[in-house]
Amino acid sequence: MTVQSATRSDESASLANTLVPTIVGMVLFVVNFDITAIVMVMPLVKQDLALDVGGFAWLMDSYSIALTAFLLAAGILADRFGRRMMLLGGDAIFLLASLQCAFAGDQTSLIIGRVGQGVGAAFMMSSGLAIIGNRYTNTASRARAFAWTGAMSGFATALGPAGGGLIADRLGWHWVFLINIPICLFIAIAAIVVVDESRDPAKRKIDLRGIATLSALLVSVVWLLLHGPRISTFEIPSWLAILWVLALFIAFWSTQRFGTQPLIELDLFSSRTFVGFCLVPVALSVAYWAVLIYLPLFLQERLGRSFSDAWVLMLAATMPMVALPMFSARIALAMQARVFFGAGLLIVSIGAFVMAAAAQMQHLVMGLIGMAIAGCANGVLNPQLTARIVGSVRREQAGAASAISVILRQGGFAIGIAMFGAVLRTSLEQPNSILVGINVFTTIFAIAAIAAVVGSVAVFVLIGWHSSD
Question: Which of 186, 204, 222 delimits the end of a domain?
Answer without folding.
Answer: 204
